[in-house]
Amino acid sequence: MRLAQLVAQCKARLAEAGIADAAFDARMLVLSLLGLETKDLLIKGDQEIAAADVARIEGAIRRRLAREPVHRILGEREFRNLRLKLSPGTLEPRPDTEVLVEALLPLGQEIAQRVSSPRLLDLGTGTGAIALALLHELPQFTGLGVDISTDALETAKVNADLNGMGQRFTTLESWWFEHVTGRFDIIVSNPPYIETGVIPQLEPEVRMFDPHLALDGGKDGLDAYRNIASAAGDHLEHGGIIAVEIGYDQKQTVTAIFISCGYTLECAVRDYGGNDRVLVFVRKSDDSATV
Ligand code: GLN
């Protein structure tokens, strides 16, 4: 079978099964598994594909037909300019979370100008995506990634090493701040924020393959924010910031939680779809930061 023919056939099978992005998924799976690039589809479309490769691709297509997301099948995905391994204990990083990283870059640069050896803390680090993307672009920082999943912590560490940040990133098993010591200039989190009752309605790609620990925010979806806001004061440096990703309808409720714990909303940022996605908080005054 030839390359172009193989891609077309895979696309047709995925489309027939109702997979929304059949063309993209077919191209991504076939090209990635063959180590080829998009342009190869144009210049090598006639290339004959070895039977063993066709069989590997067949296995991947079957997994996609069972609704496993493309990047879980491939075992990795890009996040900003990093390549990150995925594992069963890690949420697949979303493009929307890149908005959180982007929002923090200017604030992190400002902190790096006035603080020597600035530190960041990523709560529920998963693949390490947020912490590592920030460390990559804020070279003055070191970071701590916290997670309750040991599988996630192992993956985050592997990702730090793979992306050349093994020396600047450590991990800690902890339920939010429980085992965290010390203070940080940036505290960041993309916590679980889906209401428990909504999880059965999520897309099968999310519901069946993202770890529920990383999705389930409790009855009203806000458990993690309450945890984070109530304990962050002991771990935030003077002039530090806390930034969280939120669900599209949680701007008011999450802001109210942080306000009740002595923070003010510094800025709110929308995602690529125009939904509220990122909130950045600061302490009301430097005095209260020491409380
Ligand atoms: N953004 C994810 C989703 O839409 C949820 C991730 C989270 O709960 N932090 O499925």
From TrEMBL:
<dbReference type="Pfam" id="PF17827">
    <property type="entry name" value="PrmC_N"/>
</dbReference>
<keyword id="KW-0808">Transferase</keyword>
<dbReference type="InterPro" id="IPR019874">
    <property type="entry name" value="RF_methyltr_PrmC"/>
</dbReference>
<protein>
    <recommendedName>
        <fullName>Release factor glutamine methyltransferase</fullName>
        <ecNumber>2.1.1.297</ecNumber>
    </recommendedName>
</protein>
<feature type="binding site">
    <location>
        <position position="190"/>
    </location>
    <ligand>
        <name>S-adenosyl-L-methionine</name>
    </ligand>
</feature>
<feature type="binding site">
    <location>
        <position position="176"/>
    </location>
    <ligand>
        <name>S-adenosyl-L-methionine</name>
    </ligand>
</feature>
<feature type="domain" description="Methyltransferase small">
    <location>
        <begin position="114"/>
        <end position="195"/>
    </location>
</feature>
<dbReference type="GO" id="GO:0003676">
    <property type="term" value="F:nucleic acid binding"/>
</dbReference>
<dbReference type="InterPro" id="IPR050320">
    <property type="entry name" value="N5-glutamine_MTase"/>
</dbReference>
<keyword id="KW-0949">S-adenosyl-L-methionine</keyword>
<dbReference type="InterPro" id="IPR007848">
    <property type="entry name" value="Small_mtfrase_dom"/>
</dbReference>
<dbReference type="InterPro" id="IPR040758">
    <property type="entry name" value="PrmC_N"/>
</dbReference>
<comment type="similarity">
    <text>Belongs to the protein N5-glutamine methyltransferase family. PrmC subfamily.</text>
</comment>
<dbReference type="InterPro" id="IPR029063">
    <property type="entry name" value="SAM-dependent_MTases_sf"/>
</dbReference>
<dbReference type="GO" id="GO:0032259">
    <property type="term" value="P:methylation"/>
</dbReference>
<comment type="function">
    <text>Methylates the class 1 translation termination release factors RF1/PrfA and RF2/PrfB on the glutamine residue of the universally conserved GGQ motif.</text>
</comment>
<dbReference type="InterPro" id="IPR002052">
    <property type="entry name" value="DNA_methylase_N6_adenine_CS"/>
</dbReference>
<feature type="binding site">
    <location>
        <begin position="124"/>
        <end position="128"/>
    </location>
    <ligand>
        <name>S-adenosyl-L-methionine</name>
    </ligand>
</feature>
<feature type="binding site">
    <location>
        <begin position="190"/>
        <end position="193"/>
    </location>
    <ligand>
        <name>substrate</name>
    </ligand>
</feature>
<keyword id="KW-0489">Methyltransferase</keyword>
<dbReference type="InterPro" id="IPR004556">
    <property type="entry name" value="HemK-like"/>
</dbReference>
<feature type="domain" description="Release factor glutamine methyltransferase N-terminal">
    <location>
        <begin position="5"/>
        <end position="75"/>
    </location>
</feature>
<dbReference type="GO" id="GO:0102559">
    <property type="term" value="F:peptide chain release factor N(5)-glutamine methyltransferase activity"/>
</dbReference>
<feature type="binding site">
    <location>
        <position position="147"/>
    </location>
    <ligand>
        <name>S-adenosyl-L-methionine</name>
    </ligand>
</feature>
<dbReference type="Pfam" id="PF05175">
    <property type="entry name" value="MTS"/>
</dbReference>
